[in-house]
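Friendly challenge for the regulars: who can give me the structure tokens for this chain first? No prize, just bragging rights.
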Amino acid sequence: MTHAFTPRKKTAQTGKLHTFHGRFSAAGRLASLRGAALLVSVSACLSVLAAFAPPPALAADKPNIIVILADDLGYGDLSCYGAKAVQTPAIDQLAREGVRFTSGYCSASTCTPTRFSLLTGTYAFRQKGTGIAPPNGPAIIKPGVETLPGILKRAGYATAVIGKWHLGLGDPAPDWNGELKPGPLDIGFDHCFLLPTTNDRVPQVFVEGRRVKNLDPADPLWVGDKKPSDDHPTGLTHRDTLKMDWSHGHNQTIHNGISRIGFYTGGMKARFRDEDLADAWVNESNRWIEANKDRPFFLFFASHDIHVPRVAHERFQGKTTLGPRGDCIVQFDWCVGELIKTLDRLKLAEKTLVVLCSDNGPVLDDGYKDDAVTKLGDHQPAGPFRGGKYSVWEGGTRTPFITRWKGRIAPAVSDEIVCTVDFASSFAALAGETPAADGCLDSLNVLGALLGKPGEKGRDHLLQQDNGSGNFGLRVGPWKLVRIERRGKPEARVSATERPLPQAKHTLYNLADDPGETTDLSAAQPEVLRRLTAQLDKLISDGRSRPTP
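First reply, four minutes later:
Bragging rights claimed.
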């Protein structure tokens, strides 16, 4: 839609009316003035309408984008990536109809830093406070920062985040009984329906817009770091009442028979059941997609599956031999299938780019006794790769990664290196936008690789981080440099036997020959070691890796 009159045309039109006024009678001048007023009024109305309606070309030329982010899902956890103990038919269909990447990565091996970099296009280690966000943590992404949803909003997209947030709310802390600001609505999202932290941390409530959903003012919500009273039930004092026991930590306030990290009281009408999380987010996503089907939209569907506590809906419980962890994989697959059904029903499949990925690699015992270790059997959550969540080994950041756009992406398997940090620049290019020069500091435009275009390359290098302890990985072609500054948490918790971390500060591996990173080649390849070490130092010290426009 174009405006009927631009400001310049309005001025010219008014000038012509003035010229004619001198030739008219008073009545004629009054009629002309009324006519001019009418024209200005129509122009103003059209301007208002234009502000709320995208140009027709937007709907035709710019695809919808849905990013489906799993939580703690490993490379080997899906049947399309070789899993036998669990079947994921909906995700397998995505893989058959799109590009399944064998070198698809998230940027960090824990959730908060990956989510930060996905939305900002900047490696999380460059900003302080991007480690795993606590229950009362402030907003990590501040208003004014260039973000993926902000870029797409400039391009005329409706934008929503539905699911797990875990990037903090408020400043300097969340106001659980008032406005939770700043938050997603202040960094480019039009709509949000969230789990504010992560479900092993309090509180178990939804945030819709800027407020806790269904919160009764007569029953205020309190969230704290210390026990509110001596008789407050916790996983320590009331362990015999728990329906899921804890193994380490996760033993403070109890909700739904499960103890969590942190303390909270009140807000009883606002609390949810763990079993209902997936259904709530699928229903909200489908409603939002339908409401925005006639304009380009960006949906960030941030699942909680398969993060702890692993509590699938009753209809999925016992569906696998892997215990609750496997059941949550099946539940996640159902979520994907429901979103795809909605796209098909609304005839949007050929207008929508769907990207499926994970926020980090797998973990088994992450604080609860949920049979993830005892029922593992032959299943390999990280596939052929070493490590998992919390580590900079390949299993920590190499995850399932699939793109599908019916009619535009040819089915294929790709070994191009792509990463979640690149969504900002890549989707900006897809929408005809460019990130601000001082934003998205590490996001590269790998759109051609994401769309599976022949001859289009992905990244030529990839930096991997953990939760911010100073450990890094750098992959360049087949070579992988690992820098260990601290031991941190045990690297695996994804296998029954943990291998010790190397004693050397820098180790070197050839992933083409040794995907499991078992043989250190630093002594045998000193030149490669020096080259990659210097490249890693430069990537860190330069403050950015995206070329300056």
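The longest strand covers residues 64-70. The CA atoms of residues 153 and 181 lie 19 Å apart. Your move, everyone else.
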